[in-house]
Amino acid sequence: MTQQKRSSSGHKLGQLIGDWFEEDIAAPLLEKVAFELNLYLDHRFKKRSCRGNKIIWQDLDENDVDYDFVLELGGSDDKKGIPVAFFETFWRRGARHSKDKARDDSGKLMPMRDTYPTARVLGIISAGDFTRPAQELVHSRHIDLFYIPKEQICNAWESAGITMDYDDRATESTKNEITENAILLLDSSRQQIFNNLCSSVGSAVFESYINRIIAGVSALPMQYNITSVWIGDKLSFQNYNDVINYIDDVDVNGEFNGSVILFRYEVIFSDGTIFERVDLTADEALELHNTVGIVAKHFS
Q1: What pTM was computed for the model?
Q2: Which end of the chain is more exposed for a tag (fewer CB within 10 A), N or C?
């Protein structure tokens, strides 16, 4: 029972810090991006009539996945827009299982790159203890990472008069006291904590991140590549030579009875990234291309 209480207090404090980081640090950063690019930022701290409590988007396999932040073109409180960026955020008090966290969050984000050609940025906004191998894993999957070390977060809270960390050997009584005190003082200290962190990290770091996301989201299409493929009905032959005769008789243009045409659609963007989708019908290819065009027109 004592161990359960210890875990409960630690979890409660971690959740409090994580919510603060998501609402007071990550949200304002992304709101600036949204303002600069005239986009809509969706997150759980605002209500939308077009969704429930979670920010759910479907991947290519029609799996429902919830995200912390999504930047949308043409979105509003009443309707979903076209997604242009997806983000996950987290706070980690300890370095344990950092690589698992990196794998999980980047794994959630990666399917959106293949699902939406307009999703030019996939990002993680993090703070706390996050090991170098974990960070390298995120980068290897081409996920943008913004990271604030644990020491700077702790100092920002401590300078505002709130203790938010404890020794691993701390008693449950000590942990509970720290947690309850943080809950009591946080709301009145939010601005001071934010100012302390800005002073510690430096405004240039935040501005650099905002500009990096703006550049990624607003990357323009530079080239479109279309490949058409004719797919015919399956034919069965009992005789070896009949196969040879059939292949020889197929029209040189590839058009033969019972065939349908499918498309491979590829877009090369100005930041060097490439979107590709195969086996599309004409309607599906045009729908993707139209979406890319809407976003490109907005940013150009």
Answers
A1: 0.89
A2: N
